[in-house]
């Protein structure tokens, strides 16, 4: 995992995992597949997006970080992640 930080604040965080399966779909597929945004309250962020008619996946817990998270898609259909700080 690599991180780009400025004054102790992470701007970009890159994850790499050995032997990643070559899946063509899903946000955890091989290669750069999505951007993630850290928030203080994942359920509130999801509720806000739903209130703006944004289709969101169900809340779940990341198996690696054990943090709450969910995905939604940008206007081009690319996955975006919201995760708990």
Kindly describe this structure:
- The protein is 12% helix and 35% strand.
- With 85 residues, it is mainly beta.
- It has a single domain (2-84), classed as 2,3-Dihydroxybiphenyl 1,2-Dioxygenase, domain 1 (Roll).
- The strands form 2 sheets. A 4-stranded mixed sheet has the order 3-6-5-4.
- The chain is globular.
- The model has no long low-confidence stretch (mean pLDDT 79).
- Secondary-structure-based class equals mainly beta
Q: Radius of gyration from the CA trace?
A: 14 Å
Proportion of residues in helical segments:
10-25%
Order of SSEs: EEEHEEE
List keywords for this structure.
two-stranded antiparallel ribbon, 6 strands, mainly beta, 1 helix, four-stranded mixed sheet, 2,3-Dihydroxybiphenyl 1,2-Dioxygenase, domain 1, single chain, 85 residues, 35% strand
Itemize the secondary structure elements and their pairings.
Layout (H helix, E strand, L loop, with lengths): L1 E5 L2 E6 L20 E5 L2 H10 L8 E2 L6 E6 L5 E6 L1
Parallel strand pairs: 3-6
Antiparallel strand pairs: 1-2, 4-5, 5-6
Task: Provide a compact summary of the structure.
With 85 residues, the protein is mainly beta.
């Amino acid at each position: 995992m690599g991180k780009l930080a400025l004054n102790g604040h992470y701007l970009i965080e890159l994850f790499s995992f050995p032997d990643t399966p070559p899946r063509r779909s899903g946000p955890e597929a091989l290669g750069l597949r999505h951007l993630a945004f850290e928030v203080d309250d994942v359920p509130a962020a999801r509720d806000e997006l739903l209130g703006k008619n944004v289709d969101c996946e169900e809340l779940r817990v990341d198996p690696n970080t054990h943090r709450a998270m969910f995905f939604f898609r940008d206007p081009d259909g690319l996955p975006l992640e919201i995760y708990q700080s």
